Amino acid sequence: MRIAIPLYPRFTALDAVGPYTVLAFAPGCTVTFVAPERGPVTDDQGTLTLLATASYAELPDPDVVLVPGGLGTFDALGDEALLEWIRQADTHSRWTTSVCSGSLLLGAAGLLQGAKATTHWALMGNLGAYGAEPVTERVVTNGKIVTAAGVSAGIDMALTLLAQAVDEETAQAVQLAIEYDPQPPFNAGSPKTAPEGLIERAINLLV
To answer: Domain named DJ-1/PfpI: which ranges (predicted)?
Structure first.
């Protein structure tokens, strides 16, 4: 199974690296970072760079498309080369997926019309502009389209995808191999549970 993760300037590292780690552990899966051209692409913190080892033209027909989000998403919404690659790759893919604001790129590519989808909690209102039905869940499967909520939810999405694409035992084995056993020190990972006043502070970190 060939998985392609497109990179664009100011993507969020964990959106890409979390699912990459899950899927790269799975037998028979090959994960490739792609971009308009081979070369380095820097994340939204400006300090971490991933290497795209294939261009869009070199991998036009992956089995899985996995689009990360990031602070650069809104600039990327105007990147027609990226959107066209997503559209064309989707015609060949078995699964087309996203993490966080990456779902907005699926929407801009015309893939979410009438579909249930999720994204980062701060951007849920943006999905409607693309004809999607926003769903406040960590992972949402709508046919071949699988979307994940913010950042860390990409790991959950990748495990969900692996269970559907291969089998649950493989997904469970990978979860154990990477010791994915979340036990956060605070119950502040959702607007529903965050202490009063924390939402504004969190939003300030996102701009």
So the answer is: 1-163
Name the 3-class secondary structure at 16.
helix
Active site residue 100: yes
Query: pLDDT, tens digit, for every residue of 112-151?
Result: 999 999 999 999 999 999 999 999 999 999 999 999 999 9
Quote the pTM value: 0.96
Strands 64-67 and 2-6: parallel
pLDDT tens readout for residues 56-97: 999 999 999 999 999 999 999 999 999 999 999 999 999 999
Listed in sequence order, the DSSP H helices in the chain are 13-25, 73-76, 80-92, 102-108, 153-165, 168-177, 198-205
Top CATH class of 2-181 equals alpha beta
Mean pLDDT of 93-120: 98
Contacts 24+ apart (CB under 8 A), 80-88: 81/36, 81/56, 82/6, 82/8, 82/36, 82/56, 83/108, 83/109, 84/109, 85/6, 85/34, 85/56, 85/60, 86/6, 86/111, 87/111, 88/60
- Residue 48 identity (one-letter amino acid): L
Hey, where are the domains in the chain?
A: 2-181
